[in-house]
Amino acid sequence: MMSNASHTKKRKANDGRATTDGSHDVHTSNTNDGGGFLSSWFGYFSGRRDDASAGPPNNENFVQQSLSKMDRMEQIMMRVEEKLSTVSSLESRCEQLEKKCSSLETLLESTSRIDKTLKYHEMLIRNQNWKYPAHVFTMDELGEVDADYDDDEADYIYQTSAVLKRSTEALRRGDFPDQDIFEGGDKGIYLDVDNESHLLGDDAHRQLAPHWRQFAAALKHFKPAFDVLPDDCETSISFLNTQLNWEMTELIKESLMNISFKRFSLQYSYHFHGGMRTIAEMMGNNRYLQKLDLHQIQGMDRNDIDKLCSAIHCHPSLVDVTFNACFNSIFGGGLGDYMLRTLISTDDVLKLERLSMPGNNLPNNEQLGLFHNRSNVCTQLSDFLATNPRLKALDLNANKLNYSDAVLIANALRSNTTLRHLHISGNDRLGDDGIEALRRALCDESSLNSVSDSNHSCFIDADYHQMIIMQDNVVEDREINRAEKIYGLLSSRNETVSNVHDFGGIDVNLLPRVLEAVQKYAIASMDGDGDKYRVEALSIVYEVMRRWEKVAALYKLH
The pTM is what? Predict the structure, then answer.
């Protein structure tokens, strides 16, 4: 029995309690029965005793180690300072190089200007003793030549040869002819015969050929006069009422190939042989061209249109193109539909910001029967506008658009935010319904949400009687236009106390925001044209607070 009791007490001693002889039997191993904590406690004090028995630390070694670390830190700091000094030196060097580059660029620009000026004066010196060699026949002299000219043809020959002589002499002097027609600092060559005539015969072209040759030669050597103009100068080449056979067209094209100008205008030139192909080649050589203006050009076919459209898409600077009455049933064989489709249906992004195609009978199948689906071109135009292209202005005046065309364009305007101006005057077939469809695209007043979702960017320019009902988006700021329309609807409904009828689905807890919006739209409307600002904002606020039944419930909740 004593043996068993002694064994029990020994086992309990393993738990850290007293033994029968009053001593402690403590395990120093880390077991799971509680000995781990005691072992750690015992080890801590054992370590302290070992540290104490080891004696004081070696201060000399500690100092040496600290000094060594400080030396290393100093070396690192020195290297950092050297790197910073190198970076600073490089930055200073870069600044010096930038100044030198800027100075060199200025010097090069100055040298380039001097070189251009020298070439301009060389041109003047070469032409000092130049005399116009071609003879200008009077009307009487033309009546005596072998060719049988009628009065109109003889008058055209006389007028054209006189204009060509005057313009050629100005070019040889280094002057821009007829400069008084240009505004401000604009410069250009403006050749206007100002005399329409029927198609000239071969004899008439031979009579004018010497004058065209002199003009083409002077134009070709006039490049230095364009080169000395400032970069921001608006430069142009314009031909009006001119008739050129193939040979003369090629001469003029070659003269224009190396001249940089920003606008090319060809108007009322009914007989311009190789017209579109010639213009496309000229465009390819002039990367500065920004505007192309063609008016009543006769004799273009689909190959011409394909080449011209390709040139338009590939040109880096062209943003403004006009085709005025070039494709109607009289001048263009009804190819206006094909021209427009080719421009907008290509995979290339159309970079134009302005496209004008007035007087082209779009679509034109009723007269010529060229296209079976008269809405086809307007469907493509609608799809094109819905993609938000770069186009900011579109002129479709006098193109026989009807109600269906108006609906297609209106649908596109609902998702378009880039078009700023749409011109639709002279389209009598639109009718009142077509005009209303376009108006609702700009301001659908069926609800506040529909007004908000309307087009707020595009101003539609229509005939006078149509403009009376279409007065939206008169300013450039979309938010002001939107605010005017919303406040206009709120104002008109306030007159009949019917605003709250549109508030059924609105959470009454949004009341503060509703009142804030009323005030915001009122202020924005005052920033616009003011036509929509019919009542005071306080009147609308009073109506909402008085008539909206949910407001009373809100008072009860609080």
Answer: 0.75
